[in-house]
């Protein structure tokens, strides 16, 4: 568990129901009026039910006291009962309408707010979370919050409305009986609050376990080809089953810890019944209470306690909603990547000045890295796996920010250029291409929103993609599937390069695009890349050293340091790490089976 998650649990464990309701109310900011109306209408519906109880008591007491049953009396009673029924129907309809609509709109607003927040968080935040966590926040946690606003809050209002109406009636009849009725509620309330606090931490753990189960499910489905290829179906299923078992166990634990306090709360509340009977008897015997008031108290007694016991059914909804709010807070309260006012670069040269960076403070990745890439030149970065090559590209594109040192483009610090400005300056071509579900046309057009058909086709031709696209059944309208699954690796790579060409950024960062491509596709992609980098500042992470012999400079990284720099011939003659890597590459080229 991360430090942040532990801090969340420590804070959440002490959060009361009032604090949870206040937090939920704050998140409903744009729709507070509608949420409040939904709750108020449900309270009014419950009060109207109380009116019918009042009418019944009025009639019963009247009959008990020997009043004549007149037509006017019957009409009045009928009218009040009709008013009660009409009020319940009207306020019930208004409550459902406002509560359900507001719950959907609040959830929609929160989803958009969280997605906007995710866009401004550093990439490190996303990589520190497991796969299903964010998905669960936007689905299961949001559904829990929807349920809270559409059903939980109105049920709380409903559980309080009828007892409030009955308490008012009792106060008008006999204050001592009214106070006796409320006494057991006052004693039971701390039990309810204490139980709710105890469930708080369990609620958060339950939601986290559900997210973990979701992550394992996603991992199992996405990794199914590898799992089957290596006959790891049983292991994959076991991992998923363990996550499901953990979720089941924490859910059972919640139920077990809820049962006894719920029973205790209900018992204390219902102890008010003998107390009220005793007080009523004493006051009636002492002639301090009219017979009608005694009958009123006894009739209304259980009608007051019943709705309050229904609050126990809302307790889990409140706790789960509160846990969901904490999980949303983990995203919403995370610090954004700094976004200052845009600086305008003077040119497109890239420079590193004494840059240090680490994903984990205990494991530095880059150490005092300094170099300059002149405008419209090609710089290649090579080195053993884990030496920090791809991290250099990530820092230039601000997927992360350097811990120390300075990175500039055209003399402007990348942390002060601004997100939009940096996006216009830099194009990244990844080794692992990701295409979004949609058509090939839509994926290419992402490089330049609003691009014309001619511009899209021109970019595809330059990327050597037009021919294979036109051979597809639907041409540019062919759906690529999730992640581009409907296309081959080489086809996905060329679509990605077409997207980059259409963007037309002056700085191109390339994490070797041909490392895992067959020779036929490699020739097409090399041609496309040559078109992409014309007249641009190019920084390429190279795995195939044969592709960088013409680079203006080659930087050799090892353990986060630049250990060599120069052109291909210079480095070969230096007999250093680059020469050894080249020698290994030459030997590998002659390797064959047998």
Broad structural category: alpha/beta
Average predicted local confidence, pLDDT: 78
Which superfamily, in CATH terms, is the homologous superfamily of the largest domain? ABC transporter type 1, transmembrane domain
Give the N-terminus to C-terminus distance in angstroms.
49 Å
User: Which fold name fills CATH's third level, the topology of the largest domain?
Assistant: ABC transporter transmembrane region fold
Strand content: 5-15%
Largest sheet, described in full? 6 strands, mixed
For the record, the CATH architecture of the largest domain stands as Up-down Bundle
By DSSP (H or I, 4+ residues per run), the number of helices equals: 21
Give the total of domains: 2
Radius of gyration: 35 Å
- The largest beta-sheet arranges its strands as 6-7-8-3-9-10
Q: Percent helix among the residues?
A: 55-70%
Shape: elongated
Low-confidence stretches: 1-14
How many strand segments? 10
Highest-level CATH class of the largest domain: Mainly Alpha
Could you give a quick summary of the protein structure above?
The chain is α/β, with parallel strands linked by helices and 594 residues long.
Description of the molecule:
β4 (about 405-410) and β5 (about 410-415) form a beta hairpin. The strands form two sheets. The chain has a six-stranded mixed β-sheet, with helices on both faces. The model is unreliable at about 1-15 (pLDDT under 50). It is elongated and about 115 Å long. The protein has helices at about 5-15, 15-25, 30-65, 70-120, 125, 130-175, 175-220, 225-230, 235-270, 270-285, 290-310, 310-330, 390-395, 420-425, 440-445, 455-460, 465-470, 490-505, 520-530, 570-575, 575-590; strands at about 350-355, 365-375, 380, 405-410, 410-415, 425-430, 505-510, 535-540, 555-560, 560-565. α7 (about 175-220) runs antiparallel to α9 (about 235-270), α7 (about 175-220) runs antiparallel to α10 (about 270-285) and α7 (about 175-220) packs across α12 (about 310-330). The protein has about 600 residues and is α/β, with parallel strands linked by helices. InterPro entries: AAA+_ATPase, ABC1_TM_dom, ABC1_TM_sf, ABC_transporter-like_ATP-bd, ABC_transporter-like_CS, P-loop_NTPase, Type_1_exporter. It is a multi-pass membrane protein. Pfam families: ABC_membrane (PF00664), ABC_tran (PF00005).
């Amino acid at each position: 568990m991360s430090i942040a998650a532990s801090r969340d649990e420590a804070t959440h464990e002490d959060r009361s129901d009032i604090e949870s309701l206040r937090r939920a109310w704050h998140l409903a900011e744009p729709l507070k009026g509608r949420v409040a109306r939904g709750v108020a209408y449900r309270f009014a519906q419950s009060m109207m039910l109380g009116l019918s109880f009042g009418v019944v008591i009025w009639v019963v007491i009247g009959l008990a006291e020997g009043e004549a049953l007149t037509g006017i009396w019957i009409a009045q009673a009928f009218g009040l009962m009709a008013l009660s029924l009409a009020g319940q129907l009207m306020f019930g309809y208004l409550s459902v309408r406002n509560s359900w609509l507001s719950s959907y709109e609040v959830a929609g607003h929160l989803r958009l707010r969280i997605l906007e927040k995710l866009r401004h968080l550093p990439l490190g935040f996303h990589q520190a979370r497991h796969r299903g966590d964010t998905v669960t926040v936007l689905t299961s946690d949001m559904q829990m919050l929807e349920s809270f606003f559409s059903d939980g809050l109105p049920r709380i209002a409903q559980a309080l409305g009828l007892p409030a109406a009955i308490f008012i009636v009792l106060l008008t009849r006999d204050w001592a009986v009214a106070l006796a009725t409320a006494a057991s509620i006052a004693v039971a309330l701390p039990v309810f609050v204490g139980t709710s606090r105890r469930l708080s931490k369990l609620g958060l753990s339950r939601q986290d376990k559900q997210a973990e189960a979701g992550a394992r499910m996603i991992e199992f489905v996405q990794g199914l080809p590898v799992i089957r290829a290596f006959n790891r179906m049983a292991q994959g299923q076991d991992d998923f089953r363990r996550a499901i078992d953990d979720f089941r166990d924490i859910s059972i634990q919640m139920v077990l810890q809820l049962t006894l306090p719920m029973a205790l709360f209900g018992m204390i509340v219902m102890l008010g019944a003998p107390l009220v009977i005793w007080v009523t008897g004493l006051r009636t015997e002492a002639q301090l209470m009219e017979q009608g008031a005694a009958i009123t108290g006894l009739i209304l007694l259980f009608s007051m306690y019943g709705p309050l016991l229904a609050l126990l059914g809302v307790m889990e909804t409140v706790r789960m909603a509160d846990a969901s709010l904490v999980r949303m807070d983990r995203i919403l309260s995370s610090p954004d990547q700094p976004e200052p006012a845009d600086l305008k670069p003077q040119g497109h040269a890239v420079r590193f000045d004494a840059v240090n960076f680490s994903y984990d403070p205990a494991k530095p990745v880059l150490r005092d890295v300094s170099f300059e890439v002149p405008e419209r030149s090609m710089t290649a970065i090579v080195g053993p796996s884990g030496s920090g090559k791809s991290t250099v590209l990530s820092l230039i594109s601000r997927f992360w920010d350097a811990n120390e040192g300075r990175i500039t483009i055209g003399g402007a610090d990348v942390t002060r250029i601004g997100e939009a400005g940096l996006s216009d300056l830099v194009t990244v071509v990844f080794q692992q291409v990701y295409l979004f579900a949609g058509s090939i046309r839509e994926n290419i057009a992402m490089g330049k929103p609003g691009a014309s058909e001619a511009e899209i086709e021109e970019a595809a031709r330059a990327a050597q993609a037009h021919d294979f696209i036109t051979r597809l059944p639907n041409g540019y309208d062919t759906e690529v599937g999730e992640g581009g699954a409907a296309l081959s690796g080489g086809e996905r790579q060329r679509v990605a390069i077409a997207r980059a060409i259409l963007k037309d950024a002056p700085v191109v960062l390339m994490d070797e695009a041909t490392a895992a491509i067959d020779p036929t596709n490699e020739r097409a992609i090399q041609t496309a890349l040559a078109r992409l980098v014309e007249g641009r500042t190019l920084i390429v992470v190279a795995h195939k050293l044969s592709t960088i012999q013409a680079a203006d400079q080659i930087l050799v990284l090892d353990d986060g340091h630049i250990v060599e720099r120069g052109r291909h011939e210079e480095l070969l003659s230096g007999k250093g790490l680059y020469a050894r890597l080249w020698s290994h590459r030459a030997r590998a080229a002659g390797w064959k089976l047998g």
